[in-house]
Amino acid sequence: MVCWSIEEEPIIYSLNHFTSTNNFKEIKKFHGHLLRRGLLYSSFNVLTKLMCSCITIASNKNTHQTLDSFFSSISSLNQVPFNMLLADLSRTGFSSLALRTLSLMHLHGVQLDSYALCSALTAASSGKTVNFGMQVHTYIVKAGWSASVFVGSAVVGLYSRTLLIDDAEMAFHEIPVKNSVCANALLAGYGETKIWIRGLELFRKMPSLNINYDHFTLTAALCACAGLSAIGLGKQVHAYVLRVTSGIETDVVLLSSLIEMYGRCGLVSKALQIFNLSGLEVGVRQRRDVALWTSMLGSYGRIGNYIEVIRLYQDMLAEGVRPDKIAFVAVISACAHAGKVDLGLSYFESMIRDFRLDPGPEHFSCVVDMLCKAGELEKAWKLMSQMAEKGIHISVSLWGALLNACKECGNVNLARIAAKKALVLDPQNAGVLALLSNLYANFNMWDEIKQLSDLMKERKIKKDAGCSWIEVTG
After folding, report:
1. pLDDT, position 214
2. Mean pLDDT of the region 129-136
3. What mean pLDDT is predicted for residues 288-316?
């Protein structure tokens, strides 16, 4: 923590105020005042805060020039102000400027320490500028920083967040003395790329590497078990959590991971037990976090118990929990499958009106699917037109849902439009052509069927053969 002197506190407060109000003119005036009073270069805290304030609200065309001027104005090679600036830029989302700061530090002969390198790697990963991150990694190897577990963990995090898992593994193995931070960074990469088996292999190896499990490790392991439906190992992780973790009933992340794991493995009754235990503190029920509710809603939805999803959503509102976008996806989808169109539309309208949430593509898709299932083709088409006007991407599957509804209701004209839109997105989609062909067959439109057949031959489109799969153990 940075300790400010009495003189610095009002200066920092003023700069924060000008930044929050986006008042660049006042910051420039304040800059002149600090120069006249001789306060600017007497404190690295004030200098770096002023720089961050300027960059935060300056126009993009001036930020690089402002950054260059900042470096030119400081003759000291002390890393502290530069590290503070680099960290602030990385933390506030100015990834490219953070990386430019590192380049200027190197250019001006400022020594790069582990703090600067970790901040730069974080900026490179958040900005998806993996090539620059690789250059930093090369410098780390040449400068002898590879042995540092802190720098090594940042390198693993860079490759994990940019989904270069093989590089992340290599960086992990190069760290001589590992800890849970670098292991968790690699586990996060495995989870992001759904390579759950390798994630569980690392989880099993951690004790032999003298790496302790923490809450993030256990959460990652539960997510891997959920992805693989590995209920046996999932139960073992749950038992370990109960043995070593106190106060689990208030740990939202672990509890929601357990609910997800049991729900995805089909043990919804077990997921419900954990959900009912959540929020209990010394026998008194506390308001449960929305993440727990959405996990439980998803568990019921996956097994097709849509009536229970709707009931649980109503219980959530009764408990005074504000639903998020994920909860609305679950409950609107449940209404679609349960055939409760009016209720689903009321939830969609409530999302916008009562909770001030902007619906995303997934919410529109649920409503369109619900209207299609109910045969409300005109309403579905009107909503999809609104989506197009808002610039929301309409997927092939959504056009397929409208096409299938047209087939059921016998609406040939709208079916043609839906099929045309779907084939623009996926010209080789045999399922769309098959649906349209079936609709034509219902109306004895043999000439149109012949045209579709010729189109499939021309594009060399073949329908996939049906198949099924089972998991074999032993």
Report:
1. 92
2. 91
3. 93
Q: For 200, how many CA atoms within 13 A lie in the half-sphere containing its CB?
A: 19
Q: Output the CA torsion 316→322→327→331 (10° steps).
A: 60
Q: What is the domain partition of the chain in residue ranges?
A: 1-58
CA angle 134, 138, 139 (to 5 degrees): 120
Residue type, 144: G
Q: pLDDT, tens digit, for every residue of 71-115?
A: 565 556 677 777 877 887 788 777 887 888 888 888 878 889 999
Residue 37 burial class via C-beta count within 10 angstroms: exposed 0-12, middle 13-18, buried 19 and up: exposed
- Spatial separation of the C-alpha atoms in residues 254 and 233, rounded to whole Å: 16
- What is the pLDDT at residue 38? 61
For residues 391, 301, 374 and 409, what is the CA-based torsion angle, rounded to 10 degrees?
Answer: 90
Q: Which of 289, 358, 353 lies closest to 320 in space, CA to CA?
A: 289
Q: What is the mean pLDDT of residues 327-332?
A: 94
Place 419 in a pLDDT band, splitting at 50, 70 and 90: confident
> Mean pLDDT of all residues in the chain?
84
* CA–CA dist 63, 52 (Å, integer): 10
CB distance 260 to 223 below 8 Å: yes
